[in-house]
Amino acid sequence: MIATLEKNTFSLQTTTLQTIAEKIYQGERINEEDGLTLFETGSLPFLGSLANHVREKLHGNAVYFNRNFHIEPTNVCVFSCNFCAYSQLYAHREEGWELSMDDMLNIVKKYDDQPVTEVHIVGGVHPKMNLYFFADLLKAIKAHRPELHIKAFTAVELDYMFRKAKVSIAEGVNILKEAGLNSIPGGGAEIFDEEIRNKISADKVDSEGWLNIHEAIHNAGLHSNATMLYGHIENYQHRINHMSRLRQLQDKTGGFNTFIPLKFRNGDNDMSYVPEVSIVEDLKMYAVGRIFMDNFPHLKAYWPMLGRKNAQLALAFGVDDIDGTIDDTTKIYSMAGAEEQNPAMSTDDIVALIKQVNRQPVERDTLYNVVKEY
Ligand code: V47
Ligand code: SF4
Fold first, then answer.
1. Ligand 2 pocket, 197 CB below 6 A?
2. Of 104, 154, 255, 288, which residue is most buried, by most CB within 10 angstroms?
């Protein structure tokens, strides 16, 4: 009797998975229930082959990377996300760093003779670095190197600086756009489910606020990315809910470039008791992400976080972009136990890494215009 029941459940699952696979091969959107079924019952090879089909339909064999560098203005932060190993609370900031305008311009100048196309500026939320300070920074960077794309400030930083300056979101976005902002990164999204968000990062911008800021950025004609912090205390339903809310906004604005699932790392933070998920779970996350987020052009694996070998593996599970910092200026992950303690890869290293798994390296700018094919 038990054996018959198990057999029936198995064949029901197989039929459901087959129906979902047919939708995907016909280019139809899958719904939330389908997404959940994939997470719960799809085997890794099954998910990988579906995600790879979607990825190759969109991008063929191309793997994108860009030449960028990071500026982290401060690690002092007024917020206290439990998963964050990076920030120093504003109240105890003896160990924090705060870069001056000149410090940051000197970082930009360091790259004067290098063919970088993007500067990525992101850091903690410091009460004294306000909207007008950052607008001046953007103007100074543009005055020095006008063609450099400035991807700066998460929705968390923007929400705080706009509220503090007492300007509306649209006004704040406009001030920064006029100063030289070109796009914003995807950080701060974490997980949108309100109950889980309150448990892991209660005091920063809420989910609706995060989405509103990205909508305003898109309405101003700028693009953005979207992240999701996974593999902590959330479940599959929460991940699907998160992706669904992003997918809805993308249907409305079309302003997102890239979806970036970020694996929770448990080093040296207030959630160190939560075990990290396995590489199998990471690959499932990329695969379901690629399949579910049908209106997001790109899926990124952030290699400093995953490590080089796993980033190569992810290229068979839906990923078409591996970011590409050329310097060790980003500390947000290395402090939480990421695979790469000094995330620096030269262009030759990135090209070799991609070629080793028989894919085609394509250097892109922030908006995915092709800079060079290798
Ligand atoms: O929002 C912090 C994450 C994000 C941990 O848009 C952690 O191109 C894992 O969003 N374990 C900020 N993740 C970084 C970010 C990003 C990175 C690279 C490229 C882009 C892009 C965006 O880092 C935070 C948070 O989700 N984070 N601590 C941790 N312990
Ligand atoms: Fe501050 Fe960002 Fe760290 Fe949260 S994740 S404490 S907002 S630096």
1. no
2. 288
Structure tokens at 71: 């500026």
Question: Residue 86: its pLDDT value, please?
Answer: 80
CA-nearest residue for atom 2, ligand 2, is 124
d(CA 262, CA 264): 6
Q: What is the pLDDT of residues 313-344, one digit of tens each?
A: 999 999 999 988 665 455 555 555 566 666 67
Residues 316 and 366 in one domain: yes
Same domain, 269 and 142: yes
Nearest by Cα to 121 from 5, 133, 216, 209: 133
- Ligand 2 atom closest to the CA of 157, numbered from 1: 7
Phi, psi for residue 31 in degrees, rounded to 5: -95, 180
Asked whether the predicted pLDDT for residue 94 surpasses 70, the reply is no
Q: What is the pLDDT of residue 329?
A: 54
User: Are 50 and 70 part of one and the same domain?
Assistant: no
Q: Tell me, using a 6 A CB cutoff, whether residue 80 lines ligand 2.
A: yes
Do residues 11 and 112 both lie within one domain? no
Q: Count of CB atoms within 10 A of residue 320's CB? A: 26
Position in ligand 2 atom list of the atom nearest CA 86: 3
Q: Which atom of ligand 1 is nearest to the CA of 336?
A: 30
Q: What is the pLDDT of residue 29?
A: 98
Secondary structure element (H or E) that encloses residue 179, with its range: helix 169-179
Q: Are residues 70 and 43 in the same domain?
A: no
Q: Is the entire prediction scored with pTM above 0.90? A: yes
Task: Note whether 135 and 259 are same-domain residues.
Answer: yes
Q: Is the CB of 156 under 6 A from ligand 2?
A: yes
Range of the domain at 101: 61-373
Of all protein residues, the one whose alpha carbon is nearest to atom 8 of ligand 2 is: 124
Please tell me which residue, 199 or 307, carries the higher pLDDT value: 199
CATH code of residue 328:
3.20.20.70
Residue pointed to by tokens 């706009």: 162
Instruction: Determine the Cα angle at 326 with ends 103 and 368, to 5°.
Output: 105
pLDDT reading at 30 higher than 90: yes
Of 67, 229, 233, the one to substitute when testing ligand 1's pocket (max ligand atoms within 8 A of C-beta) is 229
- Output the average pLDDT for the chain: 92
The residue that leads in pLDDT, 333 or 234, is 234
Residue 218 has pLDDT above 60, yes or no: yes
- Number of domains the chain is built from: 2
116 and 19, same structural domain?
A: no
